[in-house]
Amino acid sequence: MGLKQRVIQVVVGQFVRPRGLAGRLVGWEMATRPSNRKRNLWAVEFLELQSTDCVLEIGFGPGVAIRALARQTSEGKVYGIDHSEVMLRQATGRNRQAVKEGRVNLVLGTPTDVSSLGVMFDKALIVNNFGMWPAQERGLESLRSVMRPGGRVAIVTQPRCPGVTAETTWGADREIAEQLRDAGFTGITTEVLQLQPPVTCVLGTAPANSER
């Protein structure tokens, strides 16, 4: 492997799981880049949040969407789970007051750990990290198990691999929609944000247990 490939591998690894000084810089980049902020806030709109909702974000990163979720659920609660200690610190700092008030609870963990939170959720958000899950099928099954009937999940993707095109986004979109159906979610729809490359938000609804 050449030097360029090794550098690319290191950079990609930091976005998958930020750590150390480089991870802190990655978190700063994710929090301040206008397109990232736009993508997160755009996705939150499709959850149709109610003030009393209990909401989960898997892979919360630097906590930009967590802040938006907390603002719109003033009588509810927001939970987040992420496998990066660096992101946990940044997101906690960015949402310090809501954490102090007990309205935001952020923990270390993976998608398959969500049942350990001991909470049932009305809404769930996953922004640009679903493709990094090591066990997507088990992760979605775990998520399904903690969603209230009629709960809404939003999975956002904007592929950033070398040579990415709009077709890369559409392919990822179709795969996510199929995986949500396989996990038991219904009413699958897709929204599109015209960035470069395009961003999609795949939405699904958790059915009543009897519908599984």
Summed up:
The chain has 212 residues and is of the alpha/beta class. Helix content is 42%, strand content 23%.
Description of the molecule:
It is a single chain. With 212 residues, this protein is of the alpha/beta class. It has a single domain, classed as Rossmann fold (3-Layer(aba) Sandwich). 42% of the residues lie in helices and 23% in strands. It has a 7-stranded mixed sheet with strand order 3-2-1-4-5-7-6, sandwiched between helices. The protein starts with a helix and ends in a 7-residue tail after the last strand.
CA-atom Rg in angstroms: 17 Å
CATH topology: Rossmann fold
- Percent strand equals 15-25%
CATH class: Alpha Beta
Note the main attributes of this structure.
single chain, 212 residues, alpha/beta, Rossmann fold, seven-stranded mixed sheet, 8 helices, 7 strands, globular, disordered N terminus
Sequence-ordered SSE layout with sheet pairings:
Blueprint: H1 3-16, H2 20-32, H3 34-45, E1 54-58, H4 64-72, E2 77-82, H5 85-94, H6 96-100, E3 104-108, E4 121-127, H7 136-145, E5 147-157, H8 166-182, E6 186-193, E7 199-205
Parallel strand pairs: 1-2, 1-4, 2-3, 4-5
Antiparallel strand pairs: 5-7, 6-7
